[in-house]
Write a structure and sequence with these properties.
This protein is an alpha+beta fold. The chain has 13 helices and 22 strands. β19 and β20 form a beta hairpin. α2 packs across α12. Bound molecules: flavin-adenine dinucleotide. Flavin-adenine dinucleotide (FAD) binds next to α1 and β19.
């Protein structure tokens, strides 16, 4: 059945990215007719669920793989989430002020962190430089049985922990209160987007809908929609799974991140007090290639094969990754982490960097936790791209948002809302957006 009404914008996916866009369009533009499709019964059941991600607001201060320039951009972008949370009174429900730190272990890492402290202090003046005694007092388990030299840069009093699922729900609630015509279609999977007569047709098993603009915020599926329209043919997805381990009792008060190995593309081991488990300590995520598009649900096999697009160019990227012994060992260890019984005995070696006295008996595999990162491969450059990827063609936008996509979701939404306004000849309310979201 073809629905005769034409929407201004159709959004696909009610994860944090899709719901942030819905909110931004509803509150800061004069776009009136928006339809959102979500294939599951509620928002944010996949990567934006607090069970899928590490619940960290990545702002650039403890992410040692970021350059100063990247940290400056991420700070601006992620601060929008913190500002939204405080501005609308969502503290202790959606966003939490919990301590966090970046920990350097051994001579080489402490020297590197010392240098970073000097370079980044102007951007993050709130850093608290901590060594032995202070760390022992704040986080006794961090120091128990430790022999190597350590240095930490701590952060206090900032919003560091976010329930991105509740955040998504709040975006949708606020959008629905805007008085615009917003239609939420849950349990309705988009199977195809096509172009016809200058409009987009969004096909679902129920009906075909028409929209002047369309944004796919559907994880790896966004790339498939783009490719069916003939865009992004040079890209493929390497699906990287991430799992977690809980400790048998709460061992830490703060989020503790470790220094990034310069060669490794994924976040080094960290420990996070978990919102969903009464702030018990959760370690991870691991990182391993997994032939899936959703961590705990099966994708259609053809979608998976299409997204991975295994051919000469993608295989060359896999080969380049594997020929480096550091990356090879890392991938192999992460694969072992997933094996029953063996896993925690391997993982504990990494976890000991944070808690030296830890044994495998202190760890339990976090069943039902974990997500999938849709990492992008560029087949032209033969590179694995880190961070978000976006394809924009006039009124159609396709977003793939691996970490830290949840932290930067309002910034991604701003960019897309501006693009759609330009395309449709609509207005973006700069002053209201700056006052409520940017906060500068
Ligand atoms: C292990 C792990 C740890 C992470 N930790 C962090 C962290 O600490 N901080 C951080 O900022 N980021 C983190 N991330 C990244 C973050 O989780 C993602 O960037 C973010 O959740 C992506 O949001 P999204 O809305 O794009 O995707 P999703 O949350 O996956 O939402 C996509 C939505 O689209 C829907 N959908 C898909 N296809 C269709 C279709 N055909 N029709 C209708 N609906 C469809 C899905 O059902 C889903 O609801 C982590 C990721 C992983 C995997």
């Amino acid at each position: 059945m073809i629905i005769n009404k034409t929407f201004d914008t159709a959004i696909i996916g009610a994860g944090v990215a899709g719901s942030a866009l819905l909110y931004t369009l509803a509150r800061y533009t004069d776009i009136r007719e928006v339809i959102l499709f979500e294939k599951y019964e509620e928002p944010a059941l996949l990567n934006s669920s607090p069970r899928a991600n590490s619940q960290t607001l990545h702002i650039g201060d403890i992410e040692t793989n970021y350059t100063l320039e990247k940290a400056r951009t991420v700070k601006h972008n992620a601060a929008m989430i913190a500002h939204y949370i405080t501005r609308f009174g969502y503290e202790e429900r959606i966003g939490f002020r919990r301590d966090k730190m970046i920990l350097a272990v051994g001579e080489e890492e402490t020297a590197r962190l010392e240098e970073r402290y000097r370079e980044f202090s102007e951007l993050f003046p709130y850093y608290r430089r901590m060594e032995g005694d202070e760390l022992r007092e704040r986080e006794p388990m961090l120091m128990e049985g430790r022999e190597e030299k350590v240095l930490a840069l701590g952060v206090e009093g900032e919003i560091t922990t976010v329930d991105f699922q509740k955040l998504s729900e709040s975006f949708i609630e606020n959008a629905l209160e805007s008085g615009k015509n917003i239609q939420m279609h849950y349990n309705e999977e988009v199977t195809e987007i096509r172009e016809a007569d200058g409009l987009f047709e969004i096909v679902t098993p129920n009906s075909t809908y028409k929209a002047r603009s369309v944004v796919a915020n559907a994880g790896a599926y966004s790339l498939l929609f783009a490719q069916h329209l003939g865009y992004g043919k040079n890209l493929a997805i390497l699906p990287i799974g991430g799992s977690f381990f809980f400790t048998t009792r709460k061992l830490l008060n703060s989020k503790v991140y470790t220094m990034q190995h310069p060669k490794l593309p994924f976040a080094a081991v960290h420990a996070d007090p978990d919102i969903t488990a009464d702030w018990n300590t959760r370690f991870g995520p691991t990182a391993f290639a997994l032939p899936k598009l959703e961590r705990y649900r099966q994708a259609h096999i053809m979608d998976l094969l299409e997204a991975m697009d295994i051919g000469k160019d993608t295989l060359e990227v896999y080969y380049n990754l594997l020929k480096d012994s550091t990356i090879r060992n890392y991938i192999f260890r992460n694969f072992l982490d997933e094996l029953p019984y063996v896993g925690k005995n391997v993982f504990v070696k990494d976890a000991k960097k944070i808690i030296p006295s830890m044994t495998a008996d202190d760890l339990v595999f976090a069943d039902g936790y974990g997500g999938m990162r849709p990492q992008i491969i560029d087949k032209n450059t033969h590179q694995l791209q880190m961070g978000e990827a976006k394809l924009t063609v006039g009124g159609a936008i396709f977003n793939m948002t691996p970490s830290p996509g949840a932290s930067t979701s309002l910034a991604i939404a701003e960019k897309d809302a501006r693009q759609i306004c330009d395309f449709l000849g609509k207005r973006f309310d700069e002053a209201k957006h700056r006052e409520e979201i940017v906060g500068e």
